[in-house]
Specification:
Length: 258
């Protein structure tokens, strides 16, 4: 069943002001979560879209009263969406490394509270099963943050992709490997060919979703997403089956709708 999509749209011409609006929302949610009995884990995305958001979030959280910040840190529990197969945690191109650089270290939160699939597992399929079981033990995702791939992927759910897809090993498309080659010195040969990703099923089971789309380069795929019906050729379009998707976009990404 499709719902009103998005549940809430926020457009801000300037990326910087969009980021501040997103961080306002996150800060408020984090504050409320302090008083929940056992809030569900956060679902974290990585990538260039998220970097300035995490940067601003860290600044804001570090201004919190010590007592509240302590509570937040103690209760922290997050699951990353994805990881490259073959990259070690101390490889600065791994998403484990990214999330530690961007959140765990600057916030002073123990690394064990940030779950990430193990890209170096000797059996990646088994790793998917154990990552999924861990997520289920923790009750699934509460707030899920998502960036949008140039080919419409979310996490590393590459097209074609079914809405029932679950945590699994995926082959990365050329488009995605090109999109992410900046982290590998623009050398396509160095970009891993596969990754572990949470599936659309886990994403759709989260309580609320925040899809963040910035920059002119995302304007085409955003246009496609907004006008298409849910289909396997555009994995992000499955988000239309979720009733609480917040879509955050800046002016350049939204240019076809202004
Ligand atoms: C990447 C990641 C996603 C990310 C998306 C957008 O390949 N797997 O988690 O959200 O694609 O990336 P970026 O924000 O760098 O454009």
């Amino acid at each position: 069943m499709s719902y009103k999509f998005p549940f809430k749209l926020t457009v801000s011409e300037k990326t910087e002001s969009l980021i501040e609006l997103i961080v306002d929302y996150i800060e408020k949610s984090f504050y409320q979560r302090l008083y929940f009995d056992s809030p569900k884990p956060l679902g974290l995305a990585t990538g260039r879209t998220m970097t300035p958001i995490y940067k601003s979030l860290v600044k804001r959280l570090n201004l919190w009263p010590q007592e509240d910040l302590k509570l937040l840190k103690e209760g922290w529990c997050s699951f990353n969406l994805d990881e490259y197969v073959g990259l070690d945690t101390n490889d600065n191109r791994s998403f484990w490394y990214y999330i530690h650089e961007n959140l765990s270290i600057p916030l002073g939160i123990q690394s064990g509270k940030f779950f990430t699939p193990n890209g170096k597992s000797s059996d990646p399929n088994l790793e998917c099963n154990s990552y999924l079981s861990k997520l289920k033990i923790y009750g699934g995702i509460g707030i899920q943050f998502l960036g949008l791939g140039a080919n419409g992927h979310v996490g590393f759910n590459e097209p074609p992709c079914d809405y029932k897809s679950s945590c699994r090993v995926v082959s990365l498309s050329d488009t995605t490997r090109k999109q992410n080659s900046f982290a590998f010195g623009d050398d396509l040969k160095k970009v891993p060919e596969s990754a572990i990703t949470l599936g659309i099923d886990e994403i759709l089971n989260s309580e609320e979703i925040h899809l963040i789309v910035t920059g002119d380069m995302k304007s085409n795929i955003l246009r496609k997403l907004l006008i298409s019906s849910p289909s396997e050729n555009l994995p992000a379009s499955w988000l239309k089956l979720h009733k609480k998707v917040f879509l955050w976009v800046d002016g350049p990404a939204y240019k076809y709708f202004k």
